[in-house]
Each structure stands twice: as structure tokens, then as C-alpha cells.
Amino acid sequence: MQTIIKPASYSEQNVQVLVFRTNLVSAKDIWRISPLMSVTPGILKWNVDQHDIDNVLRIETAWLLPEDIIRIVTAVGYLCEELPD
Amino acid sequence: MRTRDVNKENSIREKAIEMIVKEGLDGFSMQKLAKAAAVSPATLYIYYKDRDDLITQIATEISNRLMESSLKGMHPKMSFADGMALQWKNRMEFFFKHPLDIEFIEQIRYTPTYDSIKKSIRQNFGDVLGKFVHNAINRGELTPLPFEVYWAIAFAPLYQLIKFHNQGETPASQHFTISDEIVDQTLQLVLKALRP
Fold it and tell me: Are residues B107 and B133 in the same domain?
């Protein structure tokens, strides 16, 4: 019998959406965190809601925890707190 | 883990339409919507990437539905009179069944969001209505006209009647209700105007 071994890929089911209230207000702020977001393994997609009052940072990830994101963003001096589910 | 839930998604959409129609786009925020729809802001971001994405998705969904329902039963080879009667009937039905959806589209018609859904509307137009109009011209049932002129004559009269109906009054009368006779009388004049 053949066994199919599935690679540990980002299967759709494992992807979680994490959302944070931030003070990433301007395009410049977003530009500043952009390199951090792209070098962090595990961040599949990210964006900041620039047209809403909470400046929500939205992250799609398979394994990162909210604390990981908060650590990365606050390290460069921005506010970042998880929005309650 | 958070998962998608179709019922929840529908109720979020309904609330968003209601809020934007009532309060306008400027006063609209994800947090207010979350409260109104009794979900957490975090939940909203599962369904939508951001505020713009939410508005675009809702507008696209409505305009697809409007297009689909106005093309219901349409065939490019129909006679011009039959096709127009069907279009008028379909459009009127949608307007009366989904008044909030129509108001929502009107709210966002002059915003950048609307630009992104215009493309798909144009595509649909060309595919079915374009052929229908083209065939009618070839059969000598319709005067060739610039699109805008054609559209203004073909549909604006219907929309004005609907507007009067929604207002419940007109410059000439305090009470106005749309009726089949009035619609048909108007449609016959429109057809007459468009005939070569």
C-alpha cells in the first residue's frame, strides 16, 4: 500500500488570522515595519487597515503566536495589542 | 481557532449595508460594525482584509446580483421590444426587493471603491446586452445611438418612475404609486423613441 506523505505545507486549514490594534497611522509607519514583516518566517500575509480608526494590523500565519507579533512591532517603538476575539 | 461561518458572514454584510446607507461612509468603522453585528472586531478581519476590502466585496456582490437578475431570461436574439420589457421588469423587481442594496451602490458610486467593480460591470454589459442591442440594430428595430444616449432614453424613464414611487409624491401630486399601466405607458413611449 502506498502511503502519501503530505509535506508540512501551509494548508489552508492551519492558517490563522491574528489582528492587533496599533498606532501604525501613516504610510511611513507601515513602510518602517514592512522589512520586519517580510523577513519574519511564518508571516504568510500581512496588511494594515489604513482607512479604519484602529489601524488594525492583520496577520495570516500558520504557527506564530500573537505574542511573537507584539514583540516584533513593539521592539521598533510602536503600539501593538491583540484585539480580543 | 476561528473559522468562516456563512450565516455570520451574511449578517455582517446586512448590518454593514444598513449602517452605510443610514450613516454614510464617513461615519462607518469596523468597530461600529462589529458592535452592531454582535461580533468581535477580530472576527470581521477573518472575512475581510480591511475596511476597503469589506466595502468592495459587498459592492461587488450586490452589483453581480443586480446584473444577474436584470439579465434573467435575456437572450441576445430576442426582439428589441420583448427584451426591453423583460429588462424593465427585472430591474423593477430588484429595486423593490432590495432597496437598501440599491441605496448602498448609490452611496459608493462616486468613491474610488466603485472603480474596481466597474470593470466587471463593463464586461457583463458587452457580453449579453451588447449583443442584444447590436442584433436589434441589425434587424432595424433600434436606432444606432451613442451608448449614453441609448441608455438615458432606455432606462432613465424607468428609474425616474421608481424614484417618484419611493418618494411617494411628485411635483404634480401628493400621492404616487407605480402601477403596471404607468410603467407600460412609459415603456411604449421609450420603444417608440428608439425605433428607427
Answer: yes
Q: How far apart are CA A16 and CA A44, in angstroms?
A: 10
Residue A7 clears pLDDT 80, i.e. is over it: no
Query: For the segment B22-36, what is each residue's pLDDT rounded down to a tens digit?
Result: 998 888 999 999 999
Average pLDDT of chain B to the nearest whole number: 90
- Are B29 and A16 in contact (CB < 8 Å)? no
pLDDT surpassing 70 at residue A4: no
Q: How do A57-61 and A43-48 pair as beta strands?
A: antiparallel
Amino acid in position B102: I
Q: Residue B152 to residues B77, B86, B148, B179: CA-CA distances in angstroms?
A: 22, 17, 6, 21
pLDDT digits (tens, 9 = 90+) for B113-141: 788 778 777 776 677 888 999 999 999 99
Cross-chain CB nearest to B29 (options A48, A53, A84):
A53
d(CA B64, CA A64): 37
Check which CATH number belongs to the domain holding B155 and give it.
1.10.357.10
Residues of B in contact with A16 (CB under 8 A): 1-2
* Chain B residues interacting with chain A (CB cutoff of 8 angstroms): 1-2, 29-31, 40-43, 45-46, 49-52
- At which residue does the C-alpha cell 482584509 appear? B49
Does residue B66 sit in the same domain as residue B44?
no
Kindly state whether A62 is in contact with chain B, defined as any CB-CB distance less than 8 angstroms.
no
pLDDT at B165 over 90: yes
Could you tell me the CA-to-CA distances from A23 to B29, B91, B119, B135, B181 in Å, in that order? 16, 45, 35, 58, 59
ipTM for the assembly: 0.77
